[in-house]
């Protein structure tokens, strides 16, 4: 059987069942491309229904570079050809597998399958972070991928060099009622009591989608939240767009947000089509950069507009409704701010490239349940583009671990900190034990707001990464992913110091390039990239036990342990309790999380101690300057916790006159504005060692907001709930009394006694 004939049979079976089929063309690259042409022409695909994803040029079909494969997200094709030679990455599969329509083919061009795991390509270079080389990168991910290709139904494999069919991929299925094309179902009809326009329901392709739109009518009234969860290809973003358009048609202001504007395209497409169909006006505005802005306006005064997540979280211009698409790809702290909107819809992918739905459901749902919102849950199960149980979808889930999850709660809920075993889990163990791999990777998914297929390949193949876990009765209950960093040669350090980016060395990079310490990349350490504990056994000390075990194991091998993360007061306290010290607080917010990042070190040698000590000391010397400038909007509790976690010995630089001003403002008629730097120095000294003087939380927030961040008195008084600005001003003087008592010298105490005797 030649390739064209096999492809024809695969296409016929796929069309009969409204499923997709995967055809692997293994062997020489040129032979694979020629065979792919034979497939496309032999099957009779129209040119506009075919996309080649490759670094090669010269195709008459649509051609995308693998780096731009995400442009097919939310689109459909009859055939997608992915060239896995050279620039292959796991993310490309994750992005493209959903773009193939029911009845279509996904064609994968690969080196000979037996050779592919050891065949070097651009992705191997990407994983070879300094000081490691490409020779240190393994091929376990591709080895496992090949195994799934050879075992999974619906996957055909052809050796294009010998024209040998290894597997024909035919399942023997035929057209049945259960596999009837969902797209051929009758048009949905609006319920008699529907509040959205009938056209919104008629635009739905499945009963599931119509049911979701019906539930989204709740967003018309304040005090409601609707959560729509689905796997990819179920039409959740379309439902979001139909609801947004319907709400705007009624005159409501709908704010849409997503990890990126491209993620929200389908929402705006559906909203625009609906509004056009309702004879509303839909316009495209030009933003300041001349780029198209996602902003729809209706004659009734309604809007559908887009803002990036950090901006949207501030609820700009007081929207009536917030729509959050791909919510699972956003961190919980940011998601929680959207609950303050009058009503909000959250749309999330449970399993897939876009985000980690399980983390969303475990973490954010607790916050939502505690809010005053009436919550409605909607699950979309029926695929729109292809039939349920499509073999290509189930293959992708298995190959990319899109459905990885921790152990079910009953298996671990009785675990205690004393009943677990500490283990270093090697990549070979993970590949050999799918159960272990699913549980460990499932916990890592929960540890981060965005997990991609590439993260699985890093876990299995990257030479700088290693895994540590706490295990109970064979089940993973806590896990940490570690990245070895530092030990960079002089040339690499010089390149980094001069602004060059060096992959895989986040902490040395920041300390060297931003904080101008070229020697910081000499010591070697392990950065905790991700750490997670099973949600059923949190707050039992397991995370701290894991970090303690890691330190005991690795302290003699490296100079430091470190971490970098989006700073919250709770996380800063956690790392502080485990011996990590603040060395930096980023001066820009993460574009997705909306948080400032904290960098912390736990030294394990004299060299590590030297790095941590000098950067902690410098952080304390410069923190008052950055808090008054680039960090003037940071949460005061984040600032307090970050400074406290230095445990530094900050020596204030107060002269005799400074002390007289501070003591006079605290105990007498002196004025804060006379010498604000003296007040700042004393504030930093206290916050770095808050146990020495007894201040309340509100008083410490007052030090941050007014003294260090230089906020206007009226704003500070309002934020901290003082009855008046004058009361706030008096409270600042009162807050400095214990600081004068504890830290003041003879001059300060003499000034105090003038007003207390």
From TrEMBL:
A Gene Ontology molecular function term of the record: tRNA binding
Compartment list: Cytoplasm
Keyword ATP-binding among UniProt keywords: yes
Keyword Transferase: yes
Location (main, coarse): cytoplasm
Catalytic activities: a cytidine in tRNA + acetyl-CoA + ATP + H2O = an N(4)-acetylcytidine in tRNA + ADP + phosphate + CoA + H(+); cytidine(34) in elongator tRNA(Met) + acetyl-CoA + ATP + H2O = N(4)-acetylcytidine(34) in elongator tRNA(Met) + ADP + phosphate + CoA + H(+); a cytidine in RNA + acetyl-CoA + ATP + H2O = an N(4)-acetylcytidine in RNA + ADP + phosphate + CoA + H(+); a cytidine in mRNA + acetyl-CoA + ATP + H2O = an N(4)-acetylcytidine in mRNA + ADP + phosphate + CoA + H(+)
Amino-acid positions noted as binding acetyl-CoA in the UniProt annotation, renumbered to this chain: 531-533, 570, 577
Top-level taxon: Archaea
Record keywords, A-Z: Acyltransferase, ATP-binding, Cytoplasm, Nucleotide-binding, RNA-binding, Transferase, tRNA processing, tRNA-binding
Gene3D superfamilies: 3.40.50.11040, 3.40.630.30, P-loop containing nucleotide triphosphate hydrolases (3.40.50.300)
GO cellular component: cytoplasm
Coiled coil: none
Record-annotated N-acetyltransferase domain positions: 442-550
Domain TcmA/NAT10 helicase: 227-403
Enzyme Commission number, as recorded: 2.3.1.193
Protein function: Catalyzes the formation of N(4)-acetylcytidine (ac(4)C) at the wobble position of tRNA(Met), by using acetyl-CoA as an acetyl donor and ATP (or GTP).
Record-stated family: Belongs to the TmcA family.
Protein name listed in UniProt: tRNA(Met) cytidine acetyltransferase TmcA
Organism of provenance: Halogranum salarium B-1
